Amino acid sequence: HIHAAQFPFNGAGIEKPLMSDDGFLKAYAFPTELRLADPEEAERHYTEAVDVVLAAGTTACLFFATVSVSTSVLLARICAERGLRACVGKVSMDQNGLGAYEEKTAEGLAAALEFVREVKGLRSPLVAPVITPRFIPTCSTALMEGLAKIAKDEDVLVQSHMSESLDEVAFARSLHDGDTDAEVFHRCGLLQGSVMAHCVHLEEVEVNRLKEAG
Q1: In angstroms, rounded to a whole number, what is the distance separating the alpha carbons of residues 49 and 91?
Q2: How far is CA 60 from CA 10, 31, 77, 85, 204, in A?
Q3: Shortest CA distance to 139 belongs to which of 130, 152, 148?
Q4: Which of 4, 13, 151, 171 has the most CB atoms around its CB within 10 Å?
Q5: CA distance 208 to 58
Q6: Is the alpha carbon torsion for 138, 103, 196, 147 positive or negative?
Q7: Is 40 helix (H, G, I), strand (E, B) or coil?
Q8: Does an H or E element contain 2, and which?
Q9: CA-based end-to-end distance of the chain
Q10: pLDDT tens across 118-136, in order?
């Protein structure tokens, strides 16, 4: 689980809470990811990220890119050209972003499908697309259900974050009548065939739900 788009500020902002208005996402992650819609900047940082991963001896990973279709496909192409086995995800998010850094639901679903098909079109034996709802706070139910359908129809994996921090858990539950992250993902059809990052604050019921999903 690697955020290629966060390499430009690697190691910074980790003292900040995740969900606050001046926290990690809004102060560091979202503004940086928004800049990486620029293809030249994206190519420079993504090439560096892939080279650092390879130099560390990592030969396979799951990448988060950004909401941009074109530069997310660029990341997939760089992985293929440099010989890194990777599942690459275009981030999907339609709420609680940062101004311009979020999508309309229908546009986000169309973009996710476009991304999947473009990466498949690379015909690389090393690189595959992965459906990537960022995490529950930034994804509406309609978006998550639509992404689940795309993942099923296109036969691709799902990746996201789950129970990452206490403030994320509280925020997500406030949106879904107290339901756990695992229950929301399950209800939306995204838990089966998924890789969930972090899972730091799981309750026993969530562990059992993950076991059931396989």
Answers
A1: 17
A2: 20, 27, 15, 5, 30
A3: 148
A4: 4
A5: 30
A6: positive
A7: helix
A8: strand 2-3
A9: 18
A10: 999 999 999 999 999 999 9
Q: Compute how many other C-beta atoms are within 10 angstroms of the C-beta atom of residue 35.
A: 15
| Predicted confidence (pLDDT) per residue in 20-53, tens digit | 989 999 999 999 999 999 999 999 999 999 999 9
- β-pairing, 157-162 with 2-3? unpaired
pLDDT at residue 214 tops 90: no
* Model confidence, pTM: 0.96
Residue given tokens 């990811």 in the structure block: 33
Share of the chain above pLDDT 90, in %: 93
- Work out the widest C-alpha separation in the chain, in whole angstroms: 45
What does DSSP say about strands 2-3 and 60-64: parallel, antiparallel, or unpaired? parallel
Which tokens is 2 given? Answer: 């690697």
Please tell me whether residue 161 adopts helix, strand or coil conformation.
Answer: strand
DSSP codes, 144-160: HHHHHHHHHHHT-EEEE
